[in-house]
Amino acid sequence: MAERSTAAVDVADNSGDQPLAADAAKATADGVDTQNGRAADEPMPEKDGERRSAATAAAPELHSGHKLARRYRLEECVTRLDGFSSWRAMDEKLRRAVGVHLLPADHPRARTVLAAARSSALLGDPRFVQVLDAVEENDLVYVVHEWLPDATELTAVLAANTLEPHEAYQLVSQVSQAMAAAHREGLAHLRLTPSAILRTSTGQYRIRGLAVNAALRGITSDTPQRADTEAIGALLYAALTQRWPYENDAYGLRGLPKGVGLLAPDQVRAGVHRGLGELAMRALANDGATASRQEPACTTPEELAKAVAAMPRIKPPEPAFTAPPEYQHTTYQQGSYGRPAPVGMSTAPINIPMPPPPPLQSRTGRALKWGVAALLIAALGLGSWQLADALLDHSKQNNSETTQPQQQGPAPEKKEPVPLAVKDAKEFAPDGIPQNAADVGKTYDGSSTSYWRTKSFDEGPALQIKDGVGIVYDLGSAHDVSAASIALKYGGDHTTLALYAVDSLQPKGKVESMKKIAGTNAKDTTVNLTVETPVKTRYVLVWLTALPSAPYDDFSKAGYKQGITDVKFKG
Q1: At a CB cut-off of 8 Å and minimum separation 6, what does 510 contact?
Q2: How much is the pTM?
Q3: pLDDT tens digits for 524-544?
Q4: Rounded to 5 degrees, what are φ and ψ at 50?
Q5: Is 77 helix (H, G, I), strand (E, B) or coil?
Q6: What structural domains and CATH numbers belong to the chain?
Q7: Is the pLDDT of residue 496 over 60?
Q8: Exposure of 540 by Cβ count < 10 A (0-12 exposed, 13-18 middle, 19+ buried)?
C-alpha cells in the first residue's frame, strides 16, 4: 500500500473518553502543524512530485439519528473538518457504541481512505483500535471502528502529570512493538500523537487510526518507518517531561524554548530516568547518536523495540505503606480517676509491676504432702523419729520428681513461613511451543496490573493439544517451600494448577516424573496453597492443565485461557 507521513491537524476519530474536536479546532485556530511545527497553511515539502491534496468536497449534511446501512445510528458529531466528519454512533445490531468517519463518495481522498481502512482491518492486531467496516453506499464513504468508553487518551493522562518510569517504559515498549508488527505488514500510521494513544482500564496501550488518519489528511511519506519512530520518541519525551519536543505548543503541552533546538529530557525536567531519556533522544535524533552514550539512532520501530528490550527491566513502584495510628494505653490508679493530680506530681500514667503468681503445684504433690504429714504425726505419736526422717526424705524425692516437668521452659514456638524472593523465571514448554515467554517477568514484578498470559485455546477447560503450560521459578538457593500464593487474571469455570519441585530452570522429562508439592482446582482469581510437609527445592514449576473460558480482551481472542499476575512463595 502507499506509504504516508505526518499530518497537519490530528484526526478526530475518538474511541476513548476525550473528544478531539477541541484539539483539532485549537490546531486549526493556531495555524500550526502541531507535530512538525509547520504553519497549517504552509505546503508540505514536495517529495518526488507528491503534493498535499486539497479537500474540495463539502462535508455531508447529516444529523443525529441518521442511520447508515440500516444499522449504524449516528448519535454525536465529534468533529466536522476538512470535508469529512467523525461521529459516535450505535451499532443497533450488536448493541454497542462505535466510531464512524464519513466522507462524500466524490471526496478526493475517499478511495484512499477506503483502501487504508480495509488494509488496517486485515491486520487484525488487537493492539490497534480495530476497523469494523469500510463501505461506499448512497454517495457516502464511511469507516466504522471500535469505540472504547473505558479508555483514556494519552493527551488527558499527560495533562495531569508525567508518567513514572515503569509506566513510560510500558508505553514505549508496547507502542514500538505494535508499530514494528504493522510495518512488517506494510502499514504505517504517520499520526502517532498523544490523542492517537489510548490507555485502557487494565493498563494496556492501544493505537487508533492506523493508516486511516493519514489517508483522511491525504499525506504520504518516503520514509514512513522513520516518521513513526520519531513520533514514538516524541511520545516518550512528552511522557517523561510533560513537554512537547518541538518549539510549538501542542496537545495541551508546552513546547521547548525557541531557538535552542532539541534538549535532552533531563535538561528539561529533573529526575528523568536516564535510560528512558536517552532512548527518547535516540528515536528523535535520527541523524546521529546521542551525546551521552554514543549509541546509534533508532530509525525504525523494530530497532526501537529491540533497544527497549535490551534495557534493564524497570520495576513498578512499591505500593505506598501507611503506618497504623498509634494508640495510647492509659493506666488508671485506684481512687484517682477524675481527680486533679497534686501540685508538682506528674500526670503520666504509672505502671506498678505486679508480683508474679506463686508457682502452681500439681494435685499429686499436694496429696503426697498431706499423706506424709499424717505419717509424721503418727510417727511422732509412736516415737519413731527414724521412720519419720526416712518418710520425709522419700516425700521430698517424690515431690521433686513430680514437679520437675513444671520447671522446664515453654515449648519451642512453631516458626512462621517467611517470603522467598524469586530471582529468575522461564516459561516451561516441553513441546517447544511457548505461550508468552517475554512476559514471564510480569508474574513477580510486584504489580497487579501486569501479567503473563497463555494463548487462547478453542477446546477446554482441560487442555487438549498440550499436556499443560507453566513457568519455572528460581528461588536463588534451596529452600523448604511450604506455601504459595498465585493471583490469576481470569476466574470462572475452573483452573487446574499444581506446584512441582524441579531440578533447573529448564527441566527435562515428563511433569508426572517430577516431585509434586501441592495442587488444586480453583474458580476464583486467587489461589493459596499450603504444604503439610515442606519440600526443599530451589526451582518450583507452576503448571496449568485446565483453563477457564474467558471473553475477548486486549490482546487475545475469546477461548480457554489463563493469566498469572503475581506469584509468591513462602518457606
Answers
A1: 430, 467
A2: 0.52
A3: 899 999 888 899 999 999 999
A4: -80, 140
A5: strand
A6: 42-146 (3.30.200.20), 152-309 (1.10.510.10), 419-570 (2.60.120.260)
A7: yes
A8: buried
